[in-house]
Amino acid sequence: MMPVLYPMSKRICLAQQAALALQHYCTEAGLTLLASEWWHFNELDTRSRVLDNLSTGGYQIQPVPEYRPLKGDPVMEAKYQLNTAENRSFLAEMRQELLDFGRRFPSPGGGSHYLGDDGTPWPEKGQETWITSRMAHVYSIGAMLGDAGSPSLADAAIGGLRGELRDSAHAGWYAGLNADGSVMPTKQCYAHAFVILAASSALLAGRAGAEQLLDDALAVYDLRFWDEAQGLSRDTWDTDFTVLDSYRGLNANMHSVEAFLAAADATGREEYRVRAGRIIDRVLVWAEQSSWRIPEHFSEYWVPLPELNRDRPDDPFKPYGATPGHGIEWARLITQWALSADRKKAAPYIEAAQQLYTTAIKDAWNADGTPGLVYTTDWTGSPVVHDRMHWTLAEAINTSAVLHQVTGRVEYAEDYARFMAYLDEKVWDRRNGSWFHQLDRENRPLGTVWPGKPDLYHAFQATLIPYLPPEVSIASAVHRAAR
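Above: the chain sequence. Below: its structure as tokens.
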């Protein structure tokens, strides 16, 4: 008598790739498998009844429920699943489309134009340092990937950072230039962190001037923004570097962690990896104290300001409340740092990263009954700004893939598949290119916070990070793979 094999999973387990392939071949050929075979793919109802009931023999023939795979379930669609050829192809197609979309960014001086809905430059919005740095980063990686047009575009952006956007009188980088050529006021930690990231990527890509740019950017950052006593970064100076603003924020610190890890990987200067760890240790204390919803805004003495901007909750850089996208992004960067710094001590950091990710996804995904990730929540996790920002989705794609790779937990791969499906159905603008940068709660394009599609950074990275080593910065991982 043949034993009855009880079902294992109603949703695809990525460890069962052979079973998935068999299912695909059969259904594509128009065949209907016997009910006794569907358990390989997606019938899990019986599993909960047998987990604590180990077999001792005495099998009986019983009816087995039949569940045909649901073609509309993103977890079942191969092109949305992590570690499938179809998903790699899907991301490669999108990556090339993004590179093509952004090619018109350079201004005559090299600074990046803000791009509109179809990639047309909007020169009236000027050229900002953080956007130019992101474009230098993206096209440096494009150059390492072999994209023919990327080297010259990376060089243009690096030229803008070494030229019109740099303050030759007081050092550092302007926030940007207005359309009339006047200087946008202040010197921002956020922008300087992106200069470090851009220079690190350009150095690996072998772009002229990148090494000097990186040396200069690190020197200015160390002098003006790094607070050694606090183990954190200062946020904003006036344009002349004479008056330091009292505001302190974690957005700039998060991108500083990203930049420090990139610089350490590109140059071997491990002091920047240590510095990233010091920031992370401070952030995790605040996160745990706030039920894993990270406070964003602080006074000059690093006292949290949880009510800041309650009257402007959708501010693009300083929104009120918790920002789930940042919790997700921190989770990935913490994982990267922990694995690269000391794997033997990584476990508590990986656990903390999972707490941050899980809390953010629970608060943000489908929070109002419609697919998508809300922009902000209050301190209980209830949505405040329901709009969906493209960068939040990009970070969710990245972090779900990284956490699955590191932990092996299937739920992260299932999240990834859902995010991929949502991207394909709602966020990727098939008509004009790139991703919609902002959608309303009904997933309709909106431009109140992020009009147009100013840069490629988040979307482009989401086409690569899911398949790169989680302990290595993106540009260094691409560089190593290309050698």
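The longest helix spans residues 271-289.
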